[in-house]
Each structure stands twice: as C-alpha cells, then as structure tokens.
C-alpha cells in the first residue's frame, strides 16, 4: 500500500518522506522487560496510541513497570492544586478529586511536573517555587515556555 501511495505522490510531482519514528520491524523487549510488538506501519502513530502495542509511550513502557512494583497508583480525575514543600524541599502535592471536589494531600519523595507547559508554570507560581519575577534580569517564571 505504501508503494502505491509513493507512486501516486510522485506522479503528482509530490515528494514523500517518512516521519521520524523508531519503528521496529520485529518485537522488542526493553531493559525494563516491557515488550513492544512489531510495527504494522499503519501510519496512525504520530498523534494516536497504538492498538498493536508497538509504540513506545508511557502507557506501554513506564506505567506498566511502575505498576508492577506495587508502589504506584494512578489517580484519575485528580487535579493538583499545589506542590507542597518544607525547608526548601518538595514533600508532596495537594490535589482535588474532580468528581467529589474533596481535597487530598499526597506525600512524595519525588514530584514530576507533567501537566503541560502553562499549568506547570502556574503550579510553580501558586506553590511559591522559583522567583516569579527577577527585576535585575526582567525574567519571569515560565517565560521560555512556547507552543509550536
């Protein structure tokens, strides 16, 4: 099918190119023991999950490994409202269950900000982490975040 597409594109004076991807022709087991199936070259991997289990993503690699430790819990419908700290060290997060609007505190040794660019900056600001504005340089917290 790809050859037919390439031929049709060339006959229309269009140039095909492959998207950068790490497609594997054969199955692969990563160092954590998570298996990735062979790529089916279906062309849906740019913005979608993989129904064949061939796309490396947190859903198919990191999360299953973390779940297997018994020390990891996925909390859906949770919105972190503040990063907690004591003596300059992050100690956990405060979050709201958006179904019940009940507030919880989750202690943690490590907190990773993965809630998208603008919300990460907002969380740092409302948690008083980092200098929100430096009058000497004019720099602001989150200034260099961009959308492409």
Automatic annotation (TrEMBL):
Gene3D superfamilies: FAD/NAD(P)-binding domain. Belongs to the GMC oxidoreductase family. Keywords: FAD, Flavoprotein, Oxidoreductase. This is Gluconate 2-dehydrogenase alpha chain. Residues 34-141 form the Glucose-methanol-choline oxidoreductase N-terminal domain. It comes from the Bacteria. GO terms for molecular function: flavin adenine dinucleotide binding; gluconate 2-dehydrogenase (acceptor) activity. It is an enzyme of class 1 (oxidoreductase). Its EC number is 1.1.99.3. It comes from Campylobacter jejuni subsp. doylei.
